[in-house]
Amino acid sequence: MNAHSDAHAGNGHSSHILIPAPLGTVRQILLEPTALAEWNPAFLSVGGPSEALTGRRYPLVARGALRGHWEYVGIGETLVEGRWEVPGLAETNSWSLLPHGEGTHVTHSFTHRGALAALLRPAFAGVADLRLDRLSGRAARRALAQVS
């Protein structure tokens, strides 16, 4: 269940993990915008409707009480792409899902831009792993609850 980081040039980050939950469960969690803060350490809260819609801006509060927005850029069966922005930092991210036995192999990648992104670059080391570990725990608990 441990995530494995891959080095990226510049300010990009990537990691992957095998999550012990079906692809549909993992995808459902990624498409719950108002619950993202429950497992994504970058967010304190995400508001708006609970339905995931591309192009819709969901208000968010990020770590450091920075206010901005989250939006889905693309929603596919095996790829979810998003973007969030606060003053000085914009992140573009992707979640690639691949069925693997009874689980799901997930690759998470993200890049940052902006003045704050450059300043905080060292703080983002390991963030892809942390996000994947938290997503994995949430998905495993949900999959177990669905079986019970």
UniProtKB/TrEMBL annotation:
InterPro entries the record matches: Polyketide_cyclase/dehydratase, START-like_dom_sf
Protein name, per record: SRPBCC family protein
Organism of origin: Streptomyces dioscori
